[in-house]
Structure formats: structure tokens, C-alpha cells
Amino acid sequence: MGDPRIIKVELDEATILRRNADIEQERRVAIFDLIEDNFFKPLRDMGDGYAGPYHLSISVAEGRLILDIRREDGTPHETLVLGLGRFRRPVKDYFAICDSYYQAIRKASAAEIETIDMARRGVHNEAAELLMERLEGKVEVDFATARRLFTLICVLHIKA
Q: Which residues, in sequence order, are CB contacts of 157 under 8 Å at separation 6+?
């Protein structure tokens, strides 16, 4: 019987160029939440019936998202490579709205913060749906898992 979930997540530390408290908090929360509650089921039959749990390493190289999926014992399961072209706009929009949100937290009214946060959630939700679409036929994930994975993809896109 399998356990279709992620039990360990690693980000390519060399890809993360800028670190500040907000980015580190986003990364920590996304990884913690992802490990606590996720559904992650690679769909390719590897011939031996292995069905989880998984270690996931996420990196970005040459405009591609690389998902290195490993078995619980660390042995390779498969590596998925996805083009990031369709994510450029959502990542850019998410960064812009997050910048506004972080600025608002420091000086805006509660109503202004709520408005910005609603917009931020909307962009995040659309990006999660796009990620689910891009993973279709490769990995089955639930919506919450896709949201958290998108957050981690964004962390890898932050430029100094």
C-alpha cells in the first residue's frame, strides 16, 4: 500500500539569490505546510508498484522547473522537467502583489491589507491551477499542495 505524499522538500539553495525575512518566512511556512498536509502522486508506472512517500528536490535551470522525485530511501524515482514560460506572468504578478502586501502590513489600514491579501490569494490560486494543469498526466496533486509548490517555485525565482 502506498503513501502518496511528500515527506521531505529541498530547494536548490544556489538558485535562491536574495534572502530577507519575508522570503525566508514564506519558504519556511510553505515547506512546513507542505510536509504537514499534501497529496502528491506521480503517475508514471515505474514497474515495481512503489507509491510513496517521496522526497522532492526543486530547482530551476535554463528556464525550466526541475522536480527530482525520490523514494523514501533517497533512491531516484523520476525527474520531471517543465518549461516555465507559462509561469512568468503569474510569478511576476505574485511578486508585485506580495511586495504591496508586505508594504501594506507595515503602514496600511486593516481594510487595505485585506483587499491586497484577497488579490494575492487570487493570483496564488490561479497559479496553483496552472501548476496542476502543467502536472496533469505526470503527477496528481491536490489544490493545497499545488499552492504550496507554487510558493516554492516563486522563492526560486527571486532575483537580487
A: 60, 91, 95
What's the longest Cα–Cα distance across the chain?
Answer: 57
DSSP letters along 50-70, please? ----EEEEEEEETTEEEEEEE
pTM equals 0.83
Please name the amino acid found at residue 104.
A
Residue 100 CA to residue 104 CA, distance in Å, equals 6
pLDDT in tens, 84-107: 888 888 888 887 877 787 788 888
**Comparing 38 with 11, which gets the higher pLDDT?**
38
Radius of gyration in angstroms for the set of CA atoms belonging to the chain, rounded to a whole number: 16
Q: In angstroms, what CA-CA distances link 108 with 2, 98, 99, 100?
A: 48, 14, 13, 10
* Angle (CA) 62 53 19, round 5°: 45
